[in-house]
Amino acid sequence: MNYLFLSFCSTIPVLPFLLNSRKKKHPFFLLAVFIGIFIFQNYTFPVVGTIATFLLIFVFLLSSDRDLITAFIYSATFFLNNLVLQIIVSPIISILSMKMEWWMIVIFQAGFYVFFQFSLSKLEVWFYEKYVDTEIVKIIIAMSALIGFLYSIWLNDLPGINAAESGTLLRITIIAALCAVFLFLLVVLFFAQRTILDRTKVAQEKVEMENSKIYYQELAKNAQQIRNFKHDFQNLCLGMELVIQKGEIDEISKYFEEYIEKPSRQLSTLAYNLSALEKLTSVPLKSLLYAKLGTIDSKSIHLVIEIDDNIVFSESYLSNLIRGLGIILDNALEELAFLGGGELNIGVKQNGTDIQLTVENSCRKNLPPLYELQSVGYSTKSSNRGLGLASLENCLSDFPFLLRTQISSERFIQVIIIEGSESK
Q: Is the model's pTM score more than 0.85?
């Protein structure tokens, strides 16, 4: 029983490291990794347990969308943190051992390790993500972390071998073998990551080219609409001339209001709102909004667009954002088409370190409650078309998104919040 208690306390410090290094927690996977580390650390040969712990942490971090080299670095860093904590806590334990029971010392040591493992890992993650942005720096850090990890094995897992004949030579042999294996692993990870990054870059460039094509097609379409308006305006002026020749002031006024001033005002409002899209720095997002909004009927739909300057959207979540926003806009435009018109308000705002995208549209009075709209298979339209809001929840369910939906006073309001994004 005492051994089980000691084993559990010695494994607990890995939990805050895993939790602090993970964006989205999966409790069952976390529990499985913790149990695996507990078994390997306490019921296998020390070197085997340490390497197995390293690999379990590595797999866990990869599941958190860490890249290969970063996951390798963080996995080795856990053992480096333990070395630092050993240096700090050893003098304290020596003093406490004279005044406290053994189980109290074990609990104190576990608590000390948990607190400082969390604090150190949080600081390391912040520093790494803020300042490490080149491959060469990552490789240097990975090599340093590997050396520290191997030194941890030398210091903690191999001391007993000294008692055997040629113990030092055997320790050196084991460390050399591990060094060769982990260097090979690091090289493999480096080239695998390069391959993944190259493929991702090619795919992103292809998507950007497609989005740029859509964007310029929409610009050309808008230019054609302006040319058509110019042609129609000339015809309207000819009609105006005929009305003026009749000399009837009321008829002139009515004609001017109905056929010249009102369409001109509507076109100017639409052009002004669409010009706000130029504030967006993301071409894919800009293309989506041009494609969805560029062809709306300004006579029946009152469009308002408000966009803050210099908002930066990360490529890491952009594809999910475009999918989600596309679903929201499609639903809004379909609802407005059902109503025969209404209002559509779109906002893109920077709120501290968060980005907030709001789509608000007019909706019918008898719209079903949200829990029905969000259920898979439900549709206010024809059968088999009820996947909109359910798909939206799915593609915006992961970090860094928060989705808020509200129905109020014949308004359907959806807000996408992107956490932790900063403007230029």
A: no
